[in-house]
Amino acid sequence: MPTPSPEKGALNLLRNCAHAAAGDRLLVAYEPPEYGYFDADAVSIVSRAAERLGLRVDAVDVGFNPDNPHLPPDLLARFEAADIIVFLARLGDQLRFSDMPQGKTIIVSFALSRDLFGSGFANGHHAAFLELKAAVNETLDRAEHVRITCPLGTEITGRPEMNLTPEGDTTILRFPMSVFTPVPAHSFSGRAAMSFLTGTGSKYYDDYSPEFGAPVFALMENGRLTGFEGEPADVARANAQYDRVSSMFGIDRDFVHSWHAGIHPGCGYPWDMRQNYERWGGAAFGNPRILHFHTCGTYAPGEISWNIFDPTIEVDGVTLWEEGVFRAERLPEGPAILARYPCAAALFAAPDRDIGLRATG
User: Fold this and answer.
1) Helix 126-142 to helix 342-349 angle, to the nearest 10 degrees?
2) What are phi and psi of 338, to 5 degrees?
3) Which pLDDT belongs to residue 361?
4) DSSP secondary structure, 109-121, as one string
5) Which helix (H) or strand (E) segment is 107 a member of?
6) Does pTM top 0.90 for this prediction?
7) By percentage, how much of the chain surpasses pLDDT 70?
8) Separation between Cα atoms, residue 315 and residue 142, nearest integer Å
């Protein structure tokens, strides 16, 4: 693929995701860098690209409110005056399943930094990954049997019952597009192996990401958490987290809502996940090395996620994910999509395997 750059990544967002045209009014809703999530260059990278395209650019600091994310009247008025709203802020992710102004193009960016805007993650043609998402959705919708395994011992099976209506997914656009439509978990059972629990970015709370000394297995029956297996101290920690979070928010403790895996081989995470699990959870989940369950709460995305590393996903006997490698060419439409978008094909030929795992001392 052509040499990636942050500017090309921002142009991909505006041209191929927002479908911006000269004269459009762009509002960049940003979160200041002192919160440690989006870096200081993100706003200027997008704004410069927008000006290059002839857009009228405005920017507004929307801060970060972990406890009560909402659109105050003055901010809603700014949104109403725009044609395109790009969130370089967690507020967009927090509100992605909430009401937003109608008739606007609203995008949440999961490219958080100059590094990510300049990587294959943001530079791979947006349309390629929309087409791959649709192809995976169609394959799962037709599937009779799906099996999920991983090197730590995950074993989950079921028949997908997809909801591909607009209500089955968020209507806010995501850039880059890095996952397929979540698969409802009510028809899946088995055990998920994981090394930690973490939040989903819906709400924020203390002790957000308890880690385990050894792998813990979450046991699930038809979309219900039935218990944990592992070292007694780790099992106690997992149960305590579910008790605390479900009580804190008054939600169904044992509901397992849905799952998805990453489809974007350019989605690397070049930092240590332990430095900021919240940031990791908002950026790395699109890597095919990660399969992500939404749990604890009867809504997407729930409040506690399971992250299964290096999944193998077999769909009606065809291995579409192979120990964390997405075999897009095995989709019925896959070869044609990759032929149309050489930049995406190049990413699949040399995937970014860095998901923030670092050896501990």
Assistant:
1) 70
2) -65, -30
3) 37
4) E---SHHHHTSHH
5) strand 105-109
6) yes
7) 96
8) 10
- Model pLDDT for residues 7-44, shown as the tens digit of each residue: 999 999 999 999 999 999 999 999 999 999 999 899 99
DSSP bridge partners of 157: 147, 189
Write out 164-224 in H/E/C secondary structure.
CCHHHCCCCEEECCCECCCEECCCEEEEEEEEECECCCCCCCCCCCCEEEEEEEEEEECCE
What's at 6, amino acid-wise? P
Domains of the chain by range and CATH? 6-123 (3.40.50.2300), 126-166+178-349 (no CATH)
Q: What is the DSSP string of 26-85?
A: EEEEE--GGGSSS-TTHHHHHHHHHHHTT-EEEEEE----SS-----HHHHHHHHT-SEE
**pLDDT tens-digit profile of 95-104?**
765 556 778 8
Residue 117 CA to residue 8 CA, distance in Å, equals: 8
**C-alpha span between 151 and 138 (Å, rounded):** 27
How many Cα neighbours within 13 Å face the side chain of 79? 24
Residues 6+ away with beta carbon under 8 Å from 176: 110, 111, 121, 122, 124, 126, 129, 264, 266, 267, 286
